Amino acid sequence: MTLPRDRAIMAGLCRIGSTFVKRLPPVLTPFLQVFTKPLSTTSSSVTTEVHKFCLETPIDEATTPPASWYADDRLYDLEIRTVFRRNWVAVGVANQVAKPGQFFTGVLGNDPFVVVRDHSDQLRAFYNVCRHRANIVVQQEEGQAQLFTCCYHGWTYRLNGRLSKALRLRGIKNFSARENGLKPVAVRTWGPVVLVQLEGDGRGDFEEKTSPLLQQLDTQGFAHGMRHICRRFYDTKCNWKLLVENAQDHNSHVECVHKHLAKIVDLPSTKVEATELYSKMTGLGVRDNEQSTEGQRYGQAGYIVANVFPNLAVNRYGPWLDTNLLLPLAADRTRIVMDYFLEEDFVKNTSDKELAGFVETSLKDSDHVQKEDNGICESVQKGLSSSAYDVGRYLPSIEHGPHMFHVFLGTELRKGLET
């Protein structure tokens, strides 16, 4: 606690410092001003921005989170420390680590990690940091390994994280190989998706709260019966939340952004369900008598578009399943990782020539749609950086998904401010 007398002393020091700065050569002034500005705390300004969004206001009266949530580096850092460390975050798909020895690496915020299937067929994850001098142990993005060896000083780790070899330990005291293995990270699968939790023991109510969605997706072959086709990457110049919100808006942007889709998909049939950890849109699929190649891609059996907090999207339509991982790179940059799957029965019952043509055309159509989404989200990001915009309003009849997402995100951010 700062007492009145202390505040007076600090204020006096600031005044003295300001006078001193005025007497300095201009070239030195910017450097000294850092130390002589009136005292304020970064955390208090972040707290103010977080609390600008009211969690309790009903959607028909609520305003959206302020623009700072999408452009302020301090808010982004808070999200990484809380949302992306304490929740289950989608980082890959199971086929990347299907066999013992297979691994892939990634980074969340400043934390590099490696996911691997060990020789006992157990899925594991670790911080990808050597316990000796902090070098990144596994340098490749993915691959197959028998051991993990640091290229700096040769420390070697088994796939279960245990330190296997450390050179030149002569003279070291109170050293235990067991206590110097790679630091573990909680890891699990959810359908074909690999999730990690950097902070925590992997417990909690994620499985219980997402179970209804998982059960519905499993009836559509989510966990089994799908063949991985390919993976694609998109680097976007926008905040990760804009991509989430774009996928949750009850397809209301489709008529404006994806005009070709609006002509073939039965948009009026769309229904939305939103909970704390996920939102879901379902619909009837393409319109009757639609014979285009894109119509075949979407199918007439209906579709499911689901978003799981914080960064996973799942789309099930026609014979296709695709997963979208949103990996934040900065306040205004996000990498999208898209994995495409096809029904095994569809693959088996389609000739190689027809399958190749169908896949090529479908991926071309998907790429077109994704680039339209990326473009509109990047345009919104530019608008959020304008002094003309602070908050917006919700459309109560169709934007329950984004509102619920903001409420849960705001709750998580407030928890982060308290710890």
UniProtKB/TrEMBL annotation:
Keywords: 2Fe-2S, Iron, Iron-sulfur, Metal-binding, NAD, Oxidoreductase
Top-level taxon in the UniProt lineage: Eukaryota
Coiled coil: none
Pathways per UniProt: Amine and polyamine biosynthesis; betaine biosynthesis via choline pathway; betaine aldehyde from choline (monooxygenase route): step 1/1
EC number: 1.14.15.7
InterPro entries in alphabetical order: ARHD_Rieske_2Fe_2S, Rieske_2Fe-2S, Rieske_2Fe-2S_sf, Ring_hydroxy_dOase_asu_C_dom, Rng_hydr_dOase-A
Entry's family note: Belongs to the choline monooxygenase family.
Protein name, entry field: Choline monooxygenase, chloroplastic
